[in-house]
Amino acid sequence: MLTLLLFACGGDDKDTAEPSGEPSAEASTEPSGEPSGEPSGEPSGEPSGEPSGEPSGEPSGEAPDTYEFLNADGESTVSNSGQIFRHALIQELKNYIGGLTDSIDDGTYAPGTTAEVVDSLNFYFEFDSDTSGDVPLTFEGTLQTTFNDISSGKDLKGKIAGNDNATDHQNWTGGDFKGWSGATSPEALIQDWFTVLGDQAVSRVGGTYVVDADTPVYVTPEGLDINQLTQKFLLGAITFSQGADDYLDDDVDGKGLKASNIPADGKVYSGLAHAWDEGFGYYGAARNFSAYTDAQIKGGEYLDSDQDGLQDLKTEKNWGNCVNSAKRDIGASADAPTDFTADAWAGFLGGRHLIHSVEGELSDAQMDDLKDFRDQAVQAWESSVSATVVHYINDTLQDMNDFGTADYSFSTHAKHWGELKGFALGLQFNPYSPVTDADFEQFHTLVGDAPVLESATADEISTYKQNLADARTILMNSYGFDAANEGDANGEGGW
User: Fold this and answer.
1) Helix, strand or coil, per DSSP, at residue 396
2) What are the backbone dihedrals phi and psi of residue 411, each rounded to the nearest 5 degrees, phi first?
3) In-domain check, residue 230
4) Which among 481, 470, 468, 477 has a CA at the least distance from the CA of 394?
5) HSE of 338 in the Cβ direction (CA atoms, 13 Å)?
6) Which residues span the domain enclosing 368?
7) What is the CB neighbour count within 10 angstroms for residue 33?
8) Among 299, 376, 384, 478, which residue is least crowded by beta carbons within 10 Å?
9) How far apart are CA 226 and CA 273, in angstroms?
10) What is the pLDDT of residue 451?
11) Secondary structure (3-state) at 104
12) How many domains, in total, are found in the chain?
């Protein structure tokens, strides 16, 4: 049986931007203030696609401590720069939106039309390496300083669910996309949000505040935080969708786990190895994250494995949902600890080691083992996303409890609800999700398309708080989470 060490991964970038003319930004790290501590124990959830048992087709040799696999000539066979490129685009888009308010207010950015603002946002969504690949990145102290230093020829639009549909388990552009009223596809929803933000930006340039001067331009009067909604939804509709429903799926010949394990001429890796690496890349973990603690990754720290004094964005940075895995492990109750990060790591590393150890195509038994590793990794990935939704439901309930007090913040309420909704929309993109289609739709019916605000009636507030609690229960039951992590009616005492 393969022996694997279980380690942790996590961390979140809260970067801001200074847009002006050609999109640019100044990045900064601001981790959220969540409970500290080290996770222990096994995940409490029981998602679907349960691994069928211990791997039976034991690969040769011990799995490495890092996600690095060399061929006989000592060349790395790991390649997922395209996935890291898209992580960078998502983060830079968030940075840019986050900096719009200050840029408008100080006069460095003065769009005259909504279309102009939408174009500036699509700079990232529809990114063109030929014309913009040399635009500087806003990350500080990194080996890569431009987009082209990471990869080239990549964008977000082409990989959002529905636009790269060869392996999609649903028709995301033909009516199967759910969770937001009137949205016809994931891309259409993104563009709708861009248009709303564009309208508000132009209004602010003209001296009209849609809420007030102190509320960021990306927050609507209805309490929608367009920045949080956009980033969190893209982490689901691109990174999770591509990982779970494309590169790690096994339902299309020649794709994902059905790709050949024999390297094509001129390639140092097989199609199967490459697909697995791309799935791992979308999870976002650094190749050396076995050395990290959850607290380090949550805090945005990095370990300089090659001692060059620079962070390699392709190998030494933790991105996206990997970060939330660590946060939820840290925030779990001592009575019901989780270890999403360890489970994801064991699944991804174990599967890749198995692929690397087999010359030629995998046997049926080995493929069964690989699917077990896949299930372990994807289950931990999705469980951490769902646990994060539970966390933000609790934050939103706490915000509502502050209505009518000096502690209430409209912008914070919008932020928490945006993270809740954005992450939750992504749960539909795993073909093996433990959330049924009916439960998914019921969840989003309960949550709605906007938070209930302080101006609502007492009955409306009470009803919506119960709706959030009921939506939370759907996730707790679907994933088998322990009640100790759920939180009470006021959002206290859980994740």
Assistant:
1) helix
2) -65, -40
3) yes
4) 468
5) 37
6) 81-380
7) 6
8) 299
9) 37
10) 98
11) helix
12) 1
Q: Is 495 exposed, middle or buried (0-12, 13-18, 19+ CB in 10 A)?
A: buried
Cβ of 262: how many Cβ atoms within 10 Å? 12
In a domain, 430, yes or no: no
**Two structure tokens written together for 59:** 């690969």
Give the span between the Cα atoms of 330 and 36, in whole angstroms. 6
Q: Which of 379, 410, 381 is nearest to 396 (CA)?
A: 410
3-state secondary structure at position 368: helix
Contact 216, 136 (CB under 8 A): no
Helices (H), 145-224: 147-150, 186-205
CA distances in angstroms from 450 to 121, 153, 229, 412, listed in the order given:
22, 36, 11, 14
How crowded is residue 70: how many other Cβ atoms within 10 Å of its Cβ?
13
Residue with tokens 């509320």: 215
**C-alpha span between 449 and 446 (Å, rounded):** 9
**Among 201, 193, 187, which Cα is nearest to 224's?**
193
Residue 191 CB neighbour total at 10 angstroms:
17
Residues of the chain with pLDDT under 70: 1-61
Q: Which helix or strand (DSSP H or E) is residue 246 part of?
A: none
Residue that has been written with the tokens 């890291």 in this structure: 84
Is the separation of the CB atoms in 155 and 89 below 8 Å?
Answer: yes
Q: Please state the pTM of the whole predicted model.
A: 0.89
Contacts of 352 (CB under 8 A, 6+ apart): 67, 69, 78, 273, 276, 277, 280
Length of the chain: 495
400 with 413: CB under 8 angstroms? yes
> Which residues partner with 142 through β-bridges?
311
DSSP 447-479: H-SS---TTS-HHHHHHHHHHHHHHHHHHHHHH
From the CB of residue 93, how many other CB atoms can be counted at a distance below 10 Å? 25
pLDDT of residue 60: 53
Q: What is the pLDDT of residue 63?
A: 77
Which amino acid makes up residue 6?
L
What pLDDT is attached to residue 25? 35
Plot region of 98 (φ>0 → left; ψ -120 to 50 → alpha; else → beta) = alpha
Longest dimension (CA), the chain: 70
Q: Yes or no: say if 55 and 354 are a contact pair by the CB < 8 Å rule.
A: yes
Phi, psi torsion values for 146, nearest 5 degrees: -130, 165
To the nearest 10 degrees (0 to 180), the angle between helices 410-425 and 226-234 is 20
Name 277's Cβ contacts closer than 8 Å, sequence gap at least 6: 78, 79, 80, 269, 352
Looking at the domain assignment, is residue 160 inside a domain?
yes
Is 188 strand, coil or helix? helix
